[in-house]
């Protein structure tokens, strides 16, 4: 495949940085702290795409960078007005013809979000914990479709690739915001989930000094320290800034038996802004994570999770080490013509040891067990070049963005399997017997390269907003049984796109409709030795968005109809093989409201109805699943979270209280639709106090208490016919100092 690399060399060529520095003054917002900016550029509200300081403010005009992974902007509390995720340009959310939600830094702080899966708990159309408690992965489903395995996770506009058992983990403390774009997005991003994508915006340097330190303690022996510091670099003339974010956590889990949820994370970042037109930001991270390699409990017949944990502390642990280095470069050639280049290199290395209970005797006294040992490594590079131009043709104003992106990963994997001594279910002698480490088999390797070319035009004429994009992708994949022995090669190409039309019915009120397509390559061969066709999908979406003028209240309603075809299903002619002949269809609607009512007082409301069914599929026993609901996906969900900060005139000034309710409707426990999961309602809570209300000398000190599932609802979740437990009531207390 060497013929592809000259193209890669061309893509990696960067624009020369030059120019003189200028200075400016402005006000930006960091969490709850207002600070004065001092650096090149303009932080004042400006036209879309005009750049600005690297921090979202409440003015509706600033952005982390002006596009292509820079993240949302125009943020006040929980409300964001502008995002780049839907168009790769700074576009108001109400003008994007697709459903978008933004979880801002203030919301992440208030809920003290600990995982990426937790971040989307109050977002419409998205669910987590389909398999119960599982800290190993950030498993998220949007409109019924898996985001993780369909490569729908992005960071700073670049895909985060995972494969096999290994997926980079996202630390939410290092995120400035999480954006959820629902529906197919292949017209801009290439292969992925038909349900949508998640885009995590990394914390970036700002040209103001600031700092934060936290100490947290909570349930299950949880102890954690966080820090986030940064500002301009002395002696740089206001052209350079840094940011250093990190945390260290040592924690157990409700499973006990020595299971851990430990993490170390450090993320240095650096920005050079030699003039108002040019920005170069270096982004990096190093992280280690230790979790259980299995979180499951042995299942009794009849869809019941037993009290017997499958793992064993004598042979346990999923240790993952990952690092990333990359940059975001932006240069305004003219005020209406800008070039951007985003690049990242990721490395992830995993070692996992686990024990399974594969059977229990009739007397319910002995469990027979086996073991597994996994070692994997994943190295990936992603690159996106884009050119954005703004111009007019007669009465039509255009914002055009075109680009070429490239992604490559190489996965190596070694597996070993063995037997473990029986478990005495009476004494539960976990950790008391020696368990041998299985011998690893030979290494298998998989490589994939993707090249995509895309073009988009956002055209405004009168009160109409037309968004039209198209993209062509080439995907090359090779599989090796050993490092040097090729088993199969598979090449795919596809054209995808989106067309959307909105109309400004009144100020802030925009109804819209859109049509979009997507595709996902599928690895493997059918019974005739032919490579599987890619899975393809399309969506029709229509809705209305309303940003109430003069307020920070934003609402949206959308209906959608998604069909995904050519998914892999058992081959009815030979159940030992699969065929790309299945299809699923997801229909439903979503309603969302986000409001900042006063400083520290915010509200989110989200309701979703989704009906996702097999159109054509069979089980591994050959039974038809046509018309059945996909297991583990609730048809109805509702979530709302409210915070209230007592005003300065109140005797309770400094106190902030909040609470959330999450209703998860019933779903089927298996794809055969024989048993249902019961509906469950969970409650979360927040109590916080800012000590500056006692005395101004305590400015910056804050105590915060978060509770999750505070009424300790004990429930299990089943999908694919397997059931697992969920996390019980959990409390985390935080002491915070910001300056």
TrEMBL record:
Residues 37-47 have a biased composition (Low complexity). The keyword NAD does not apply. Residues 93-197 form the TonB-dependent receptor plug domain. It is found in: Cell outer membrane. Residues 37-75 are annotated as: Disordered. Residues 1-23 form the signal peptide. Its main location: membrane. This is Iron complex outermembrane recepter protein. It comes from Methylobacterium pseudosasicola.
